[in-house]
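Hi Y.,

Following your request, here is the sequence exactly as I used it, all 445 residues.
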Amino acid sequence: MKRNMMRLLSVMMAAFLFTTFTAGSGATAAATKPAEQKDEGVTFYLVRHGETLFNVQGKMQGWSDSPLTEEGIHVAENLSRGLKDIPFVAAYSSTSERAMDTANIALKGRGIPLTTDKRLKEFNYGEWEGAKGEDILKKHPDMYTNPNVFKQAGGESTQEVIDRMTAALTDIAEKHKSTGGNVMVVAHGMATVNLLLALDENAWGMKPLPNSSVTTIQWKDGKFNVLKVGDMSYAEKGEKKLRFYFVRHGETLFNVQGLMQGWSDSPLTKEGIEVAKYLGKGLENVPFLAAYSSTSERAVDTGMLALGGRDLPLQLDKRLKEFNYGEWEGMKGQDIFKANPDMFTNPNIFKKAGGESTQEVVDRFKDFLKSVAAKYKDANGNIMVVSHGMSTMNLVNALDPQAWGMEPLPNSSVTIIEYENGEFKVGKVGDQSYVENGKKALGHE
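Below is the corresponding structure, written out as tokens. Let me know if you'd prefer a different format.
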């Protein structure tokens, strides 16, 4: 009996140990078996590098390299600011320095490491690298259509480029699919275009991708989906450019009478008021950060009409006044011109009448521009400035002698002066399209 009890206990203990072991083995096996990763999807922000020296020179770059130009660096900085609200989980780049430099500029301040991958490089153009693209195209008019055209120069075929680009993006997507998110990839124009055409033949034509443009591609469940191609909105959003819309006041009584106005003043005519209203309608879709005006009432009244119903204060500034013509104010312009035929060419002509020199007027206008530019140094947008004809014209000529002749600026016309990178540049001068568009919109053609 005792022997049987011992045998039973031994069998029960063995069974217990077996059960415990197998249960433990099963748990361990389950724990070590790799769980299938959930695919959260990845969105690629595929960036073409910034403008380079070879781009400007029209040379084929390929696996060769050339540095970013000042403009290339500048637009990449704009891109960085434009992308600031887009979170990235990772960043990759071609091993070409122009791509790495663009990526590092675009990633500035993020603390995200940049991983490089040779598979993201441009086409290898073989012996044609460094040659003028237009010269190669003349000799090989099928350069953009023959998938093997670069092979004859010792380069790559289109399929080889597509295969390595696809493999690189697939590997990146697989690596980040469990967390998902946005991935920045800085690569090259031709390689990206051909990848896009392989993914979606209707996604893009054969025109070049703009430098620092963004092409977004979504990867989910092993499939690529092209979302947007050659998008420059991020670089444009990140611009730090001010555009000053210089408006000449509307027609006044002295304008009609041919009298010199200067620091003196006269009211807007009925026509002047009407056209200023057209201007306001034509400008209604132009957003303004601020609005300034000369302290002369003709300019203030024009400014209020041009602003329409905007909730934007009109700030007055004496630096924006017309030339001081001294004792000649209120006199017939044609009489002064007959007596002083150098009236429009002599920079000190008005000094002898107790007025201002051209340089004095230009200096106060430049002082105004610099102070406003400093105030909005981190902004991108438009500033309305309502001023006068002769003073604005001389400012324009001081900034760019080729921009405008000595003919009068039309009343209520718009002259645009741009400020970027510490420089003022003249855009359109005496533009009446805003008035014309406003007139059409109001049905007064």
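The two ends are 121 Å apart (CA to CA).

Thanks again,
Q.
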